[in-house]
């Protein structure tokens, strides 16, 4: 049975929401189309922009590309000690692209920006994605792993160490601690002279 191939070029994103106050952030994207799920490489932010330049190929049966009409991109911020943070989600509606691609045999769209929507429904940042759909291609579905597409991955196990750190570090009055530490250092250096 002939189906189609959807190629998604994940280019970059910018102005994403940060969960970390200090340091640069590392991001990855979970791409969901129908029952297929792909995860991008983890990339570090540089100058307010994150670059992936990664291509993903979704092999589709005729029923899939006629029934499923959107591609969901969940942007996640990597955390070393805790569960990864949801940085936002972009949705690319594909009905028109798939319909025109089916009529012409193929269609290619240059990378375009899509708004990143946060959990509260506001917009923060954008992700740049390019698309290419080729119809009437033998979609070899054998060997393709099928998993559910819930968007955000299942909750990761929470580290006890990270929980204690979060609880303790947020409650330390850092300015007072640093002030007294500075005074103690000054007094000890005066005594040594």
UniProtKB/TrEMBL annotation:
One of the Pfam families matching this protein, by short name: C2
Domain of life: Eukaryota
Record key words, sorted: Calcium, Metal-binding
Gene3D superfamilies referenced in this protein's UniProt entry, alphabetically: C2 domain
Domain C2 as annotated: residue spans: 1-107
The keyword Ribonucleoprotein is annotated on this UniProt entry: no
UniProt GO MF annotations: metal ion binding
Record-linked SMART domains: C2
Database matches in PANTHER family: C2 DOMAIN-CONTAINING, CALCIUM-DEPENDENT LIPID-BINDING (CALB DOMAIN) FAMILY PROTEIN
Protein name, UniProt field: C2 domain-containing protein
